[in-house]
């Protein structure tokens, strides 16, 4: 159920004439006999290098984020530095993935990503879309709009900083 949420985010980002790409961490097919930059997938690293911002769609797994998400994020490091990130929580329960988001925040910091102060929450995700994958609650679009406005501002600001200011 994270997939319709991710597709919706891609649609909303594209609608704002921003180039984006949906990356499914499952499709990366990461090995599990090692971790970190030793298993960096070249195409994923290239996407992270090009990106000005990330939107992480994270389901809540046992009151945190999924281990596979961390395994994927851990494969890059310098590619993320001084780039913006916003997190969209997904849960089958009523809390919208907030516990997973809280746990992701220190990880974002260690990766050099800059978090925004808005999240989007998809609580009770099985009721969030109808059979044609349309949102059942239009208020989500207003929340996504605020979230993306903030993310785009942060991404532009950080890009300006990366391009014009030496550390
Ligand atoms: C291992 C596992 C643990 C889960 N733990 C929680 C949880 O703690 N709270 C919750 O609301 N939903 C929990 N769920 C339900 C997921 O949040 C729900 O399946 C997810 O948001 C849907 O996305 P997915 O289909 O991409 O997994 C869990 C699901 C799995 C597979």
Record keyword descriptors for this entry.
167 residues, alpha/beta, 4-stranded parallel β-sheet, 4 strands, globular
**What do we call the CATH topology?**
Rossmann fold
Low-confidence stretches: none
**Bound ligands, named by name, code or SMILES:** flavin mononucleotide
Count of beta strands = 4
CATH class categorisation: Alpha Beta
- Give the CA-based shape: globular
Report the mean per-residue pLDDT as an integer.
Answer: 97
Residues in helices, as a percent range: 40-55%
CATH-assigned homologous superfamily: Flavodoxin domain
Write a structural description:
- With about 170 residues, this protein is of the alpha/beta class.
- The protein has one domain: Rossmann fold, CATH 3.40.50.360.
- Strands 1, 2, 3 and 4 form a four-stranded parallel beta sheet that branches.
- Strand 1, helix 3 and strand 2 form a beta-alpha-beta unit.
- It is globular.
- It starts with a helix and ends with a helix.
- The mean pLDDT is about 95.
- The site of flavin mononucleotide (FMN) has 12 residues, from loops.
List the helices and strands and how they pair.
Layout (H helix, E strand, L loop, with lengths): L1 H14 L26 H9 L2 E7 L7 H7 L9 E8 L7 H13 L2 E3 L4 E3 L16 H26 L3
Parallel strand pairs: 1-2, 2-3, 2-4
Bound molecules: flavin mononucleotide (FMN).
Flavin mononucleotide binds next to loops.
Summarize the model shown:
This protein has helices spanning 2-15, 42-50, 67-73, 98-110, 139-164; strands at 53-59, 83-90, 113-115, 120-122. By secondary structure, it is of the alpha/beta class.
């Amino acid at each position: 159920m994270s997939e319709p949420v991710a597709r919706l985010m891609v649609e909303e980002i594209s609608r704002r004439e921003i180039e984006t790409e949906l990356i499914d961490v499952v499709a990366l097919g990461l090995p599990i006999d090692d971790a970190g930059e030793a298993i960096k997938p070249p195409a994923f690293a290239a996407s992270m290098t090009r990106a000005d911002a990330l939107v992480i769609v994270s389901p809540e797994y046992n009151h945190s984020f999924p281990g596979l998400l961390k395994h994927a994020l851990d494969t890059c490091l310098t590619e993320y530095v001084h780039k913006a990130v916003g997190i969209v929580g997904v849960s089958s329960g009523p809390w919208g993935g907030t516990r997973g988001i809280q746990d992701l925040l220190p990880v974002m910091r260690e990766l050099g990503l800059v978090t925004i102060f808005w999240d989007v929450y998809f609580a009770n995700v099985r009721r969030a879309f109808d059979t044609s994958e349309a949102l059942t609650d239009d208020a989500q679009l207003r929340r996504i709009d605020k979230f993306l406005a903030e993310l785009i501002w942060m991404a532009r600001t950080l890009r300006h900083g990366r391009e014009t200011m030496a550390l």
